[in-house]
Recover the amino acids of this structure.
């Protein structure tokens, strides 16, 4: 009888520590969030994950780990991105209301 062994692999480059970036998933040994890497990658400013990695001082493996984490947890990460966008908009509105900033369209 043939036996099948299943091995679960973990993306060990991604960590979550409540003391770092509010517990958001980050790249091990950095304060860069998965969201940050995904946002840069999706910006279209880079031709490849390797180019992005070189520009921000990461390894290609770290960028690919962040992207893999994103695709494995896309609804959760997208939700975090939406929350960050909403917080940013509220902060901008508050500054505008206080006369400390103005919106540039």
């Amino acid at each position: 009888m043939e036996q099948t062994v299943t091995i679960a692999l973990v993306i060990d480059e991604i960590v979550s520590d409540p003391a770092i970036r509010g517990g958001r998933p980050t790249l091990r040994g950095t304060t860069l969030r998965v969201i940050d890497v995904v946002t840069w990658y999706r910006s279209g400013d880079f031709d490849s994950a390797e180019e992005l990695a070189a520009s921000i001082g990461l390894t290609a493996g770290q960028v690919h780990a962040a992207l893999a984490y994103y695709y494995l947890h896309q609804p959760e990460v997208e939700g975090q991105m939406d929350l960050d966008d909403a917080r940013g908009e509220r902060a901008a509105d508050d500054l505008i209301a206080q006369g400390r900033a103005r919106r540039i369209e």
